[in-house]
Amino acid sequence: MKTGRTLTQLAQEVDRQRTSRRDFLAPTEKLTMMNIPIDNRPMLLGLTGDDPMELTPFAPHQLAEDLGIPGRYYDRMKAEAPGLLAENVNAWLRKEPRRRMVRTLDGQVRAWLSDRYRPIDNFDLLEAILPSLGKMNVDVASVELTETRMHLKIIMPSISMDLAMARREAMMKAGIELHTERPGEDVVQAAVTISNSEVGVGALTVDESIHRLICYNLATVCRAVRKYHVGKRHGNGNGDDGFNESVQAVLSTEARVADDRAFFLKVRDVVKASLTWTRFEANALKLAGAAGDKITRPVEELGVVLMENFGLSDLTRKSIVQRLAEGGDLTRYGLINAVTLASQDEADYDTATDLERLGGTILELPSGQWTALAA
Predict the structure, then answer these.
(1) How many separate helices (H) and strands (E) can be counted in the chain?
(2) Segment 1-45, tens digit of pLDDT
């Protein structure tokens, strides 16, 4: 498991962003892309009077996809023909008028979203769950706030199990050569992973997880909550056409605040329920049972299949293959640990967290899909 910033650092930055962010509902024909002549930086004009806003590295990909401009072509125009880029973007902003939610932070456009996007903000999430976590016997193992997502990884040390005997039993039933682990060498603990994106990169999720002490490894094994950021279209009561409206700042309504409060109470309760012996035991025994599923495909070939099926980079493929070969456990259990161990080799925290989730995806593969992958 990768480590990020401290919980205090995370809370301070989330609070700072709460006061700096602004959201707008913008008719696209009232927005204009321009380029600063000095270094050809794309800027968006029209959100706050005459002050243009630079786009963060992430937002242009959303803008390009929405306008139907291929990403590689957008990047090439930005690098080689910034005037042509502005011309293309402005033409499509006006040719197909619509209304978009534009999220800004520190004077930069950080997200270009549908007018149905339903903000679930990091500050509100932390405010709802941190007090209850503070009353529980938990360890905050890792937290991070990236450009696109916030992650919290929480461990309950008091809820643990030694998987050594359960793994041996699964391997014996499958006729797999036994490893030499002794009792106490494969202790796992209950954990939960909470992730949210304020810029449209996936839903708010709460994942039941397993923490393996021997290698400080985390695998998500069961999704408890998935809340998509989709709701009714934002508007001012004049209907959905809205194309003659001015750009408007988005304000929280009393109804939305009440709805958010009810939802966050549910999230809090789900987090607490995920850190119980009943849920943990079921997940841990399922993980131990994966030791009975053989891998017969050559390891290098398996790495290629993983890369193709799950969109992994070649560097990640090599890391997984190396971890699997070093571990010498050619079972589904061994592969899950190799994938989640490889997450520690990733420079990017989001990518590392995705690999921890991939471990859970492999655990949940039906027998037919597992056979197609591993045989």
Answers:
(1) 13, 12
(2) 888 899 999 999 999 999 999 999 999 999 999 887 666 788 998
